[in-house]
From TrEMBL:
InterPro entries: Asp/hSer_DH_NAD-bd (IPR005106), HDH_cat (IPR001342), HDH_CS (IPR019811), HDH_short (IPR022697), NAD(P)-bd_dom_sf (IPR036291). Signal peptide: none annotated. Its EC number is 1.1.1.3. This is Homoserine dehydrogenase. It is an enzyme of class 1 (oxidoreductase). The lineage of its organism: Bacteria, Pseudomonadati, Pseudomonadota, Alphaproteobacteria, Hyphomicrobiales.
Amino acid sequence: MTVYNIALIGFGGVNRALAGLIATKNPQWERQLGFQLNIVAVSDLYLGSVISPNGLDPRMLTEANFTKGGFGQLSGGSSEADNETVIKLAPADIVVEATFTNPKDGEPAVSHCRWALQAGKHVVTTNKGPVALAAQELKALAKSRGVRFEYEGAVMSGTPVMRLADKTLAGAEMKGFEGILNGTSNFVLGRMEGGLDFSSAVKEAQALGYAEADPTADVEGHDVRLKVVILANELLGANLKPEDVTCEGISRLSPHDIETAAKENCRWKLIGSAARGVDGIVVGSVAPKRLALEHPLAGVGGATNAVSLNTELLGSVTITGPGAGRVETAYALLSDIVAIHSAQPSKDAKEAA
Ligand SMILES: NC(=O)C1=CN([C@@H]2O[C@H](COP(=O)(O)OP(=O)(O)OC[C@H]3O[C@@H](n4cnc5c(N)ncnc54)[C@H](O)[C@@H]3O)[C@@H](O)[C@H]2O)C=CC1
Ligand SMILES: N[C@@H](CC=O)C(=O)O
């Protein structure tokens, strides 16, 4: 049986949900996917660090109500988060990075990924910072060490837009994309249309695990801007940086704007897009748009995301699915691990060699 030892960096909504899935689904994964996951370390800014080479009980991790520094009570634990030691020294095959997204320079997550890859460990991450700001470097580093850097959850949570474009639509010749790429702002717009005020709607999105640690990133469009950069660079072969993408969020839309749109059979949506122009240059933008109700993106509600991929050979292909959520995003991490597993000879075969 293949068992991947994993180290969780960050133990908030997403990595906690992954631990919860491990607690219940390992036997099923072994049958259906050919592997089980074993958590050998966790490090979290608030809770501290713990390394346990034989593995930590995932149920204990998710059910114990740890307070600040709580990992210090565990065998092999410390009340301080020593990410560097955990990443470099824990006996993990895969480092799972799910700390806060830093839209400015991606740190410290970029360093977390770098340390792991340098140590010959695969990285799976839902953190948009390293992917938007350092993907080229990290992909090259992974290649040089014979490991993988996977990040499906960085855009559209567990909805597999990047693998769809990369694998299933290979050769279709991508020209651009347009979509709803932030679950929180889409949820907030829907709740405001139902009469709720802006800040109560944001609070609901936070309680549901959709929002960033600082929800300004969601409602001001900064989160979508990172996602536009990631998709433009991945799908269109661009080399965009966040400052290349114009960005306006939804915070300036008033209840009156939303009501007026509804009376005129329209709906506001926060749209992220990028396209290659005739000059070959890729241009991206983020802005609220008033869409007629017949528009394919107008009916996308709640934290659901949707993106229409404009291709040369197939025309427009739209993928829709969850854009945020703890379990939905933990699924993205699982799908990355499935990709790692599929791409390599079995760990048992390597150990036998
Ligand atoms: N929640 C969602 O729906 C989605 C989240 N993401 C991304 O996934 C990542 C994790 O998201 P959530 O779990 O929802 O966030 P969260 O805010 O619930 O958890 C983040 C955890 O990371 C810890 N942390 C922060 N900085 C740290 C550091 N330097 N070292 C160690 N631990 C640190 C925090 O203490 C917290 O427990 C974020 O980057 C987010 O942008 C991506 C797609 C969807
Ligand atoms: N805060 C983000 C989470 C996923 O990236 C969102 O609301 O879409």
